[in-house]
Model the fold of this input.
Amino acid sequence: MNNYEILRIGHRPERDKRITTHVALTARAFGASKIFLSNPDSRVINSVEDVVNKFGGNFKIIPTENPKKVVKSSSSLIVHLTMFGLPLDDILDDIKSSEQDILFIVGAEKVPPWVFESADYNVAVGNQPHSEVAALAVALNSISPISYNTKFDGKISVVPSATHRVMHEED
Ligand code: SAM
Done:
């Protein structure tokens, strides 16, 4: 099965803490193995590591000050999620037929031109502006055969319930 990684560029520590945390948690929950985070932010790293410690998995969060180098040195298919790209539904079959791992790039504010130029695919989840969390969730769910049904082996797990909040905690 393909391995999925995320590169989150343009993180602004003063305003993006919560949304970058959600990008990382969505990546993990939908089966990605790793997120590269441009501009180190210990609050994001601590929040995500706390979830991994409790709920399991090997998801890694890797700070980088050189996102271009991450892309240039990657052997993965580079899929940049952008409202300006080609419709996901039109190129989904091409992406899914690739045997390469996939590095998804998501932005925060305006994305620099090198990102568009480095991408194998500039992909839009609709051509309206919305959110990197939504775009990543839809893209991973469309491309990954397991997606949000990824299994985790954490100390804590949710026991699905129609009526209550139920958690199982290992002794
Ligand atoms: N105008 C900005 C731009 O240059 O793309 C939008 C920034 S948006 C707040 C942050 C990120 O959300 C984008 O960099 C992109 O990764 C993602 N995004 C937003 N809308 C999207 C869409 N319709 N399709 C795919 N990705 C989207």
